[in-house]
Design goal:
The structure is a homodimer of 242-residue chains.
Chain A: E1 5-11, H1 13-16, H2 24-35, E2 38-45, H3 49-62, E3 65-69, H4 80-88, E4 92-94, H5 96-109, H6 115-119, E5 122-124, E6 128-130, E7 139-142, E8 145-148, H7 152-162, E9 173-179, H8 183-196, E10 201-209, E11 212-221, H9 224-237
Parallel strand pairs in A: 1-2, 1-3, 3-8
Antiparallel strand pairs in A: 4-5, 6-7, 7-8, 9-11, 10-11
Helix pairs in contact in A: 2-7, 3-4
C-alpha cells in the first residue's frame, strides 16, 4: 500500500523576509511521518492574494491533503480565509457558529468583540470548523485543505484535532547509522544497497566535525524486518568505520 | 524601483520526513533582505526527479533568480545536477575544470578519487562553477539558477560567492514596535495605517506571554523616513500600551 500524500503551505511575509524562522513545517513533517502520511512538498508564499490562490489550487490538485499555516488572524494582512474561498470559487461571510464561539470568548474576557475580531468568524461556504483550544478563533477544513493558524502552539493544537480524522498509512520507520568516513567512500556500497532494497529509502547526510568527515545513513521504510536486514548489511560493510 | 525577486528550492527527503530541520531558508532570507532582493517563494521537494525538474522550471520562469540547496554530493540520492540539466534541456557530463579541482583536493588529502567522488564533477553544459571553500566540490550557476550544497556551512559560503554577482535593490529596512494588547484591538488602527502608507509593508505578529496577549508590529520598506513617519503614528496611537 502506498501511503497518502500531503503538502504544506506556509503563508507569511515574515518567513520570507527572514524575520521569523518557521517552526510549523518541521513539526508537521514529524507528525505526518508518525501518522503514515508522506509530506511530499512544502511551500512558503507571501501575504499576496494571487500567490496564495495559485499555490492552494496547485497543491490541492496534486496531493491527497493540504495543510496551511498563517494568515487567519484579525489584522489587514490576514487574508488566508478569503484566498481559500477564491481558490475554491465559493462565497465567504461571517458564520453564526464561529461568531458565537468568539462572542462567548470575548464576553468572558471582557474584550470588545469589534469588527476586526469578527473578521475571524469569516468562513468559506461549505467549510467545517477546526477547534482552537488556545485562543478560540477557529481554523477550518474545506475539501482536502486544512486551514490553520501560524502561531506555533495554536498550529500544533489544530494539527492534533485534524490528524485523527485522516486515514494514515503505515508509519514510516527509520534507523540511522553513523559512519566515520567521507561520503565519497560510502557512496558506492550505498548505491548497491539501495539497488538491493528498492522498497526502502536510503539517505546519506554528511557532516564534518573536528576536521573529520562522516555521514549519517538513514534507512526508512514501513517494514521493520527489511530495515533491520539492510542495516545489518551496512554494519557488516562498514565495520571498520563505526 | 521594484527590487529584484528570488525563489528558493530546498531539495531533500530529510526535511520533509522531519529528520532534519532546514536552516538554509532562514539564512538565505536574511541575506537577500540585506542585499535588496525580495524572496517571494520557497519550496521544499523530495529527492524525486520529476518534482525537482517541475519546481525548477516553475520558479525560474516566475522569478528573477532561483537558489537551490541540496542534492549535489556523491551518493545515489544526489540527483540535483542531473535534474537541473533536464530542466534546462542541456547535456551533463564530468567537466575537466571541476574534475581537476576535485582531483587536486583528493591528491592532497590522500583519499581515493573514486567514481562516486567523480560524480561531483558532473556539471550541466553551459554552467559556471560556484566556489566551495569548505569541501571543494563546486556548485554551479546556469541561467538564473544557482545550485548549491545543502550542508549549511557550505551553503553559506556559496551564497557569499554568489550574492556580490547579483544586482540588488534598495535594502529592505524594518522597525518593530511591541504593543501590549491583543491583535483584535490593534487591527483597526493598523489597517488605517496601512492605507495611509501604501508604500510600506506593515505586519502584525501576535504573541501570548504569561497569559497576556500582545503583538509585534513590523513596518518594512526601503525609505527610512517613511518608516519613521509610520512608526511615529503608531507610537502615538498606542502610547498607552507600550
Amino acid at each position: 500500500m502506498t501511503n497518502p500524500t500531503a503538502a504544506m503551505l506556509v503563508i507569511g511575509d515574515e518567513i520570507l523576509s527572514g524575520r521569523t524562522r518557521d517552526a510549523n513545517m518541521h513539526y508537521l513533517a514529524n507528525e505526518l511521518t508518525k501518522h503514515g502520511i508522506t509530506l511530499k512538498e512544502a511551500r512558503v508564499v507571501s501575504d499576496d492574494r494571487d500567490a496564495i490562490v495559485a499555490a492552494v489550487n496547485d497543491l490541492r490538485a496534486a496531493f491527497d491533503t493540504v495543510f496551511t499555516s498563517g494568515g487567519i488572524g484579525p489584522t489587514h494582512d490576514d487574508i488566508t480565509a478569503d484566498c481559500i474561498a477564491a481558490a475554491f470559487g465559493v462565497g465567504i461571510d461571517i458564520r453564526d457558529d464561529a461568531r458565537a464561539l468568539l462572542a462567548a470568548h470575548y464576553a468572558k474576557t471582557g474584550a470588545e468583540f469589534n469588527a476586526a475580531r469578527q473578521r475571524m468568524a469569516r468562513i468559506p461556504d461549505g467549510a467545517t470548523l477546526i477547534d482552537n483550544p488556545i485562543s478560540v478563533a477557529p481554523g477550518f477544513t474545506i475539501g482536502n485543505v486544512h486551514v490553520m493558524a501560524g502561531v506555533p502552539n495554536i498550529f500544533q493544537a489544530m494539527v492534533a484535532s485534524v490528524l485523527p480524522t485522516l486515514t494514515g498509512g503505515d508509519p514510516l520507520l527509520s534507523q540511522t547509522l553513523r559512519i566515520n568516513c567521507g561520503e565519497g567512500e560510502i557512496a558506492g556500497p550505498l548505491s548497491d544497497l539501495a539497488a538491493d532494497f528498492p522498497d526502502l529509502s536510503i539517505g546519506s547526510y554528511p557532516f564534518q566535525r573536528d576536521g573529520a568527515y562522516g555521514s549519517n545513513i538513514v534507512i526508512r521504510g514501513t517494514d521493520a524486518g527489511r530495515i533491520d536486514a539492510a542495516m545489518t548489511h551496512l554494519c557488516d560493510r562498514f565495520a571498520g568505520a563505526l
